[in-house]
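re: ur question from earlier - yeah i can do the single chain one, its not a big deal. heres the input i used so u can compare w yours
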Amino acid sequence: MQHDDALPDAIAAFRLDSSLDGERLDAALRSLVTGLSLQRARAACAIGCVAVGGVRAIATQRLRGNDLVQIRPGMLDLSLSIGSAVVCDRGGVLVLYKLPGEAVHAGPLVDDPIADSLQRALPQAGLCQRLDRPASGLLLCGRDEAAVSAISQAMERGEIEREYLGIAHGVVERDEGTIDAPLRITDEPRGDRPKVIVDHENGLPSVTHVRVVARGKTCTLVRLKLETGRTHQIRAHLRAIGHPLLGDPRYGDHEANAHAHKTHGIARTLLHSEKLALVAPHTGERIEVAAFHEPDFARLFPSLRER
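and the output i got, formated as tokens:
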């Protein structure tokens, strides 16, 4: 086991031996984490607290000898209270893990958005970032009103580093590059048509840095670093260079999406908020956090799994 007890949000990593071969994850967690009941183990898995080989795992997953199980034991109580996995809670910075399909804010057909769950558990906390409903990964929040204000101002000044993983349709040829294309929001209300378009005359400055992580036969795993934070920026920029995100119904390639759904079970836009780096407003320490990977990403790019 590897665990840095100095940090309450540190990951405990358990390398399994053959005695747990074939065991369900929820049952195994009871023996790995002191005092963890089966019910709490299942609840922790359900909200994204647990990974196997760096990939978010479900309670019913069967384990194999030498698997690497990862969890943040010090964050379990707070995570279960909020209903979202807590990745970081230091210096006024609160980072949650958003599951694919979870709504961040209230809206049509949304029963319990993350914003409401967060406010019930921590009335002074607040969101500092938006993520589209299909997206997954890190969601930046402030622990109190002062932190929310400071983090939001730092975001506006471009002082917070945000990196995303995406799976783009087609094979991206260049290893790295920058998309510098002004974006404008249209009045298009339909969810199957682009809401944001490139407009060199009336668009707002928008810059996305792209680096290829791995290439498949028909898609590419890319890391995306935002210099600006426009609505649908990544989705619109990748569409503009002819490599839209796989699974994206609004900006993507419909035939490619249908094929990915049929062959790999892809049922959402493949965008994942992977890394955040910022200075904590209350302590001045530099905080860097990274998310577990998602199972649908790992199905297309198995190299994401840690062995």
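Residues 84-304 form a domain with the Pseudouridine synthase fold (CATH 3.30.2350.10). not sure if urs matches, ping me
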